[in-house]
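Section 5.1 Outputs to date
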Amino acid sequence: MQKIVILFVLFGIFAFTTNYAYSQEASLATFQETAQVIVEKNRSQNVTASITLQTTSIQEIKIPSELETKIRENERITSVIITNQPNCILGVIDESCILINVKRDLSDKGIVEIQDSTKAVANLFIDEINQVFDTRAKFHSVFVHSDDEINRTLETSGVVSGRGTISAVYTMPMEDTQSMYEKISAILIAKEIRDSEGFYQTAKNLSSEDNAKVTFSLIPQNNNSLLQLKLSVDYPQAAENLTKINPLKYLGANELKKSQYFSSGFYPLNSIFQIVILSDENEIISDVNGVIVPSQIIDGEKIPTEINQKGWIFDPEEGERIQGKFIFGKDNSIYESDLIFSLKDKNSTVPPETTLDESLVILIIIIIGGIAAAIFFLKGYKK
């Protein structure tokens, strides 16, 4: 959670709105689009692809200001999640969920008091949430988290579960992802962004996949809220024996376009593709089709020194955890051929000359959507 706070402090210092372009110097916008592919060769053998649209501006993701303020100023609410992920909480089967996640009141004694207190807080908001999202969710249960299983399911960072967090769970009939994504997008995403295509259009196309799921998150911060709409698709067993990686295959596209929302200036940090590979073996990147951009080490992390050029930054590029980020530079699109690379057993390959830090790869797993990417590149931008 501290990482998220640091991010938005940095945004407050460095960000510009998309209505303002400062020549062709690099600028930052509040709106960010991130594509991500996670290849789990070490555990589930699944590949998971996702598109996340996020902002801190209620003009870009349109939550009524009264509701956003009311949620943010309630000291006990840590997040509001709307999802059609299956089994969103223990005991929920084949229903969509609204989770209002609440900090425990330490004065509550015993499970009954905890449940009653949590339900009382959540009930202050559920009617307005139902109204905004055109839903009719009904109270199901209060769930006290004892581990981070829900974080792993929804790819969050401690704001959904973990000790001290309780979820008031409201359920509604399961809705298919394509119609749910279109409805939520029409309600929330500013028309200017929807009309600008980009990652939004890729996510919309991907929403028709069989294993596609949608999650909306509102996470209160000090002076604003992080608002995210995420479309994810799970490909069971797709990572098994995978050696040649074609990332855009899992996004159902051969081209990934930046949003035209950024056409008023140069916003190299606001559209990012990233990949994470988890393996039981020591593997190494090889046969990279695209360009690997020049970089330097800043605060222990590899940062591009040339943001005008599109290409890869792999950090680390070998081991049991590999992470890559692809920047667009001044281009508006990246193509299938730009992103293809191979994995080889490190023991059969000459090791690279440099030693790479593996710390940042963990962020991409534990932090929602594209936050890690923004932190990563903000460091280089600040320097």
